[in-house]
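Aim 2 progress. For Porin opacity type domain-containing protein, the working sequence is reproduced below.
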Amino acid sequence: MHKIIISTLLLTSFTLAGPSYSFFGVQTSYLDYNHVSSPSLGLKYGVQQGMWRTTLNLDYAKSSNDTLTSFIIQADKGILQSAMKDSPFKPYVGFSLGMLQHDNSGTDKGYGIGLNTGVSYLLNDAIDLDLGYRYLSTSKMNNIKSLNSLNLSLHYFY
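Predicted structure tokens for this construct:
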């Protein structure tokens, strides 16, 4: 748990210099893990500063007797800034670190680390729509070796 707290502090330190914008969001995902495909719902909180964005994600997925809960810290960096300067589309790449809990006739807990990519579409100055993909490789889990997710998020900046 201490490692997660320290990692959160390090990741959010990207946002301490200069102006930053906080945001709150909702997310729906399509997950694929351990031969299970499942939709999920989640909440997000994050900070955007320049090309960097740091996000805390809490997600919950349920498929019959199978549930997966995750708490993921994600740091993204905007790419192709000069080419997309006047476009509402903002592509990004980043990395993710999180804790996972899988319940299916027993509880399996572990950690995940991985990469993510996607594109945000700016609807206006306060709202964006984000379509992303995240891959996590897990450790200390008996039944899940990796997690793939296709995510659709709506963010409100304040």
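The chain has a mean pLDDT of 88. This observation will guide construct design in the next reporting period.
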